[in-house]
From TrEMBL:
Residues 123-155 are annotated as: Disordered. This is Sigma-54-dependent Fis family transcriptional regulator. The keyword ATP-binding applies. One of its GO terms (molecular function) is sequence-specific DNA binding. Transmembrane segments: none annotated. Residues 139-155 have a biased composition (Low complexity). Residues 126-138 have a biased composition (Basic and acidic residues). The modification 4-aspartylphosphate is found at residue 58.
Length: 487
């Protein structure tokens, strides 16, 4: 087997002769061409004289650390992908390396199967596939992905998101997407996947809040035949389905604490144990997560594990709400109308009139892009015109998300009634009083969003699961013909 091209060589940096030899033999058997160094100084001398595809470095070196090499690569604008090897149990070093720009990390003692897999992924090829021959070596340039192109809008906020997507797409660092419901966090996650070396591999999206708690472990890790009643055959979980690709965990803040602990172990060990299995299965995937909650506050409240938060929040991308980028409305509206019209077989694609754009710009969109899509979908279905007018847009009367204590949802009750209630003194039963206030708020939100529980919950900062729980607790019953859950 011929070695890879000169520009695809590997650099191994480790001061322990036995370990360095082990890494060299493993990589040579895979068909790679490589050189070695024992110190930061030796490694920098080699880097200054030639280019490499991947730099594999120990964290601790006699004259510095692997972070020194990462800093030099960053300062020089080099394209080498770095894999850092850290001491066992040193989560802080691993996170620090990823934040410093490492493509991925390994912990000692290094699992050689995992080692080969990570190196292969860094080189942009499938783990287990032989190193390409000279004539097969493909250029490692990438064009803008389809998902990145789907992020409509040219506002500074969106340009910043795009820039971050391009940067984090080059590494394996976990990314936490923070943003309100309906802002397009999954689209951002798909763009990150599309910009990385795993673009041709599976992208598995999971809504953590939509899975019953008792099924979480089986859905995430799979199960073996006979593991429980109804398990008639082996089934893979989300982790196995995302093998070689990306696993996107949406609404990660809704995971119960017990499942958070199991997820943390899977991330640390890079392996999962299916329900009913006696051994663990290695997994090689990139993990992206998203939430509309303030996870730092959830950690302080004891509802989210601090160690898991640190693992997930290596790099954070805030996805701005629509009200912060209303200048993008023409681009977003055009993109949405094109997609809706294409799916509905409508031609030509209707346009938004200046009056329609003005009305959209005057609305705060608590449901963000998802709410805008619903509005345009309804307008397109009910209007046969080639240009949508302001009167075609079915929007609530509220204008600004800052006009009331409920962010655009008018306070319940009349001012006079509130004053009378205050003059009446303190309530005799605080729990009953607060339940009644919550019941009225939920009913108002449901009515405003035409009994769409997903949209009403998002309006109030609640997941669908939380919305259903509160409705059941407060005895709010909605006719099945009226109740709707958005996808």
């Amino acid at each position: 087997m011929k070695p890879m091209t000169a520009n695809d060589r590997l650099l191994v940096v480790d001061d322990e002769p036995d370990l360095r030899t082990l890494y060299e033999l493993t990589l040579l058997r895979e068909g790679y061409s490589l050189v070695s160094a024992e110190t930061v100084a030796e490694a920098l001398a080699l880097l200054q004289s030639e280019r490499f595809a991947v730099v594999i470095t120990d964290m601790r070196l006699p004259d510095g650390s692997g972070l020194d090499l990462l800093a030099w690569l960053e300062q020089q604008g080099r394209n080498e992908r770095a894999i850092v090897i850290t001491a066992h149990g040193s989560a802080e070093n691993a996170v620090e390396a990823l934040k410093a720009g490492a493509f991925d990390y390994l912990t000692k003692p290094v699992d050689l199967r995992q080692f080969r897999s990570v190196v292969a992924t860094a080189l942009g090829r499938e783990p287990g596939r032989p190193a390409p021959r000279r004539e097969e070596a493909a250029p490692r340039t990438s064009s803008s992905s389809g998902a990145l192109a789907r992020l409509a809008g040219r506002s500074p906020a969106m340009e910043q998101v795009r820039e971050l997507i391009r940067k984090v797409g080059r590494s394996m660092a976990p990314v936490l997407l923070q943003g309100e419901s309906g802002t397009g966090k999954e689209l951002v996650a798909r763009a990150i996947h599309g910009e990385g070396s795993r673009a041709s591999q599976p992208f598995i999206a999971v809504n953590c809040g939509a899975i019953p708690e008792q099924l979480l472990e089986a859905e995430f890790f799979g199960y073996r035949k006979g593991a429980f009643t109804g398990a008639s055959e082996d089934r893979e979980g989300f982790f196995q389905a995302a093998q070689g690709g990306t696993l996107f965990l949406d609404e990660i803040g809704d995971l119960p604490l017990a499942m958070q602990s199991k997820l943390l172990r899977a991330i640390q060990e890079r392996s999962v144990r299916p329900v009913g299995a006696v051994s663990e299965t290695p997994v090689n995937l990139r993990l992206l997560s998203a939430t509309h909650k303030d996870l730092a506050a959830e950690v302080q409240a004891g509802r989210f594990r601090q160690d898991l938060y640190y693992r997930l929040n290596v790099i954070q991308i805030r996805v701005p709400p629509l009200r912060e980028r209303l200048a993008d409305l023409p681009d977003i509206g055009t993109s949405l109308l094109e997609r809706i019209a294409r799916d509905a077989g409508v031609h030509p694609v209707p346009r938004l009139s200046p009056g329609a754009l003005a009305r959209l710009s005057a609305y705060a969109f608590p449901g963000n892009v998802r709410e805008l899509e619903n509005v345009l979908h309804r307008a397109l279905a009910l209007s046969g015109a080639s240009e949508l007018q302001a009167e075609d847009l079915d929007l609530p009367d509220c204008v600004s998300g800052e006009d009331s204590a409920f962010g655009g949802l008018a306070p319940l009750g009349q001012p006079a009634a509130a004053a009378a209630e205050e003059e009446a003194g303190l309530p005799l039963d605080l729990t009953q009083y607060l339940d009644e206030v919550e019941r009225r708020v939920l009913l108002r939100a449901l009515a405003e969003y035409r009994f769409n529980r997903t949209a009403a919950g998002a309006r109030l900062g609640l997941s669908l699961r939380q919305m259903r729980y509160r409705m059941a607790r407060l005895g709010i019953q909605v006719d099945d013909g009226e109740a709707r859950d958005a996808g």
